């Protein structure tokens, strides 16, 4: 069926956090200091060339556990200044300490964030009632919309469907970044609430959109934003076969960046550094990619971009420098 004349996909929920979002890295200078100018230099092409309508700062890929509160605020202010009138900027404020998360949320509001990303408390493994209380407390602390971050593989605590259904009644809790790898749970919440769902795992962009999710928060989009957005564009134009081709074209990059034992921040920073774009080192306890890993990552990016071109996206697959040979 011609995608131009095909019936459109079912409407998405309202997109208070954008549609095609990037889980952006936090660039550092060579000596490990925060690089606000580098963050601006990354953010502008992601939005203006890559077609991303949202950026998420200080999340997992942004190395939030190793940046200070002051660094988080400086980073946020720099990115809001660079692209805040052209993209939704969401600030990660989740910690394992409710008081700390509240303080970060209020600081993000003052710094100009458009929304908050709040992960479930990690390490202490609170009960579902305690998790819900924590998330409500943070949501009550500001006037900003809140996206819940369900990533039990990192936090040790999943948000159950029942907890999500209850939290959906909060006037400022409007979305979920879903890294739970539980499509049944996601389906129950999508069917029973108005929460906007965002695929937080790149391999689930199309599956979740087909269930009614709003969009994605992508790690791979740091280096291939157009290729990621093209999956959503094709599906929303009614071209489901084309959307599948575009999703499958992402597999080499997604597997290399998020499907191995290498943390996403390490992989993305290695690729950006290879492309001559601001990135810098990762902070300990993470370790920078060595030459062999970087070579494998570059090969995966090149394969994905080649496959994306073959899929006929009609949009630039990557921003910044071309992938060198």
How is this structure best described in words?
- Helix content is 44%, strand content 11%.
- Strands 1-2-3-4-5-6-7-8 form an eight-stranded parallel β-barrel, surrounded by five helices.
- Residues 1-14 and 321-325 have low confidence and may be disordered.
- The termini are far apart.
- Helix 2 runs parallel beside helix 3 (98-111).
- It is globular.
- By secondary structure, the protein is of the alpha/beta class.
- The protein is built from 13 helices and eight strands.
- It has helices at residues 36-48, 69-83, 98-111, 128-140, 152-155, 161-167, 183-192, 205-210, 225-236, 240-249, 251-258, 264-274, 291-311; strands at residues 20-23, 54-57, 88-92, 115-119, 146-150, 173-178, 196-199, 215-218.
Question: In a nutshell, what does this entry contain?
Answer:
By secondary structure, this protein is α/β, with parallel strands linked by helices.
